[in-house]
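Appendix B, Record 12. Input sequence as logged:
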Amino acid sequence: MHTNKKETLISLRDGLSSATENFPVETLAEQDKDTKELERLLHESETCVTLLAHELQTIENANQKLKSELEHINPNKEASNNLSSELLVQRERNRKLVSITTELKEKVLAMRLGKSHQELRGVFNKKSLESDRLQLAFSDLEKKYLGTLKH
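Logged structural output:
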């Protein structure tokens, strides 16, 4: 792909040099300047691509080396997998214990609130009876007052 870009750029430069007879010199000078700038940028981008490819290859080699060192350090993967599975079992057990503990806390809290709720219900019922009595007394007083107004 880069060779196509270079060939295109070379053909543009050749066309530019033959076109000097047909166009004003100032426009051609600007185009020549732009072409040189594009050629420089193309060269820089090719250099960057080459450097990145080299860096990627170096990193892949280092990664492969680390993998082989890891296999050398821990050749018994099955034992490691057993430890990992034990760890997963313990984590699951821990999650279950946490959920059971949370449920128990909620139940204890509900029991405490239940008592408070019952106490509040009793107070509410007493206040409600007292309110009913006061409304009845107010109604009786109102009747007596209206009765006195008629006389």
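Residues 135 and 141 are 10 Å apart (CA to CA).
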